[in-house]
Amino acid sequence: MERIPALDGLRALAIVMVMGYHASRQAVPAGFWGVALFFVLSGYLITRLLVAEHDRHGRINVRTFYWKRGVRLMPALMVVCVVVLGMGANWQGVVPALAYYANYARIAGVDLGLLTHTWSLAVEEHFYLLWPLAIAAIPSKSRLRVIGVLLAVAVVWRVIAIFIMSPGWVYNATDANGAALLAGCLLGVTRPPPWRFAGWSIPVLGVLIFLPIFGQESPLFLWGGFLAAGLAVVAVQYATTSPAWLEWRVVVWLGKISYGLYLWHYVLFRSGMHLALAVPLTVVLAAASWYLIEEPVRRWRVGRDRHRREREQALLGSGVDQGSTVESPKPGD
Fold first, then answer.
1. How many CB atoms lie within 10 A of CB 55?
2. Between these two residues, 305 and 33, which has the higher pLDDT value?
3. How many other CB atoms sit within 10 Å of the CB of residue 77?
4. What sections of 191-325 are H helices per DSSP?
5. At 103, is the secondary structure helix, strand, or coil?
6. CA distance 271 to 113
7. Second label for 284, Cα 20 to 30 Å away, from 91, 153, 278, 317?
8. Do residues 294 and 75 touch, judged by C-beta distance below 8 A?
């Protein structure tokens, strides 16, 4: 799938929102909704990736998908966890982060300390685990209808959860965040033409994060997730038109290292370090994570996968099944 630089620019905006919130909840009371933008982006990109693979090959290689996600995400996270342990943290907070159940551990009252922010990584990992199986199971001609229904169910459930579940559940649980992810998924299969004035979604989202009415102290706190996700959908659609300002070199670069920025900023911001030092050090560590861990691991993985494909091609005539795949349903199944 062709890379869209403006989507990296959108990632940069999302991480700036989140970092602003963690830097000062008083100044940026609703900046945490930058996470909703990350969720919509993930739903959009992963769905496009999986649909393209399914349409091209008639199946999805689930094992390869899991392998790529794990290799992409785990090394940098492991380094952060080692550093946090070295800073005096205990395993009680590290294990949920590494095992990707930090969101439910947080709901259960586990003190995750400097790794509290990994709750959103757990939500995305659960999505990565389930969504390839879902796309493989949905007939191509039914994707729009089925994903639309799933989105409607997710929206209704979040509304119900706001009334019957704890605020911690609605904010952290994977099921309650499914609406934002599925909104991105639906955009990934519809890919409508650019909407007029879609560019206004980004400044509106920017204004939203400064409004106390959507902060954690407000009764509209949880309802703001719907507005944030809706604006995020429009913003993603706008970014696919490749607006020049979202493709500025610095903005795209920040988007590329946004995973490292997300991993490191909370650790430094909550370590007692002054923000004047924590912010630039976060950028330095995120850049180091990208150039010394994430990119080298990616190149190693690409080389390894290329070697495996060449080996498989040499065995094509043997009739040996070389991968764990999930076949799409056939008519009459």
1. 10
2. 33
3. 19
4. 201-208, 224-239, 249-256, 258-269, 275-289, 295-314
5. helix
6. 10
7. 91
8. yes
- The confidence score (pLDDT) of residue 324 equals 43
Contact present, 210 and 29 (Cβ < 8 Å) = yes
DSSP-derived 3-state class of residue 59 = strand
The whole-number average pLDDT for the span 13-28 is 96
Q: Helix, strand, coil: what percent of the chain each, to 5?
A: 75, 0, 25
Question: Residue 197 corresponds to which amino acid?
Answer: F
The alpha-carbon radius of gyration of the chain (Å, integer) is 20
Helices then strands, each counted (H, E), the chain = 15, 2
Burial class (CB in 10 A: 0-12, 13-18, 19+), 155: middle
Region of 165 please: left (phi>0), alpha (psi -120 to 50) or beta: beta
Contact by Cβ (8 Å): 8, 290:
no
Is pLDDT above 60 for 74? yes
- Say what the pTM is: 0.91
Give the range among 172-176, 212-216, 251-255 with minimum mean pLDDT. 212-216
Q: Cβ(168)–Cβ(102) under 8 Å?
A: no
To 5 degrees, how large is the angle CA 82–CA 87–CA 93? 65
pLDDT in tens, 246-294: 999 999 999 999 999 999 999 999 999 999 999 999 999 999 999 999 9
Distance between CA 216 and CA 193 in Å, rounded? 35
> Degrees (nearest 5) of the Cα angle 303, 308, 311?
130
Q: Is 9 helix (H, G, I), strand (E, B) or coil?
A: helix
Q: Which of 94, 80, 114 is nearest to 288 (CA)?
A: 80
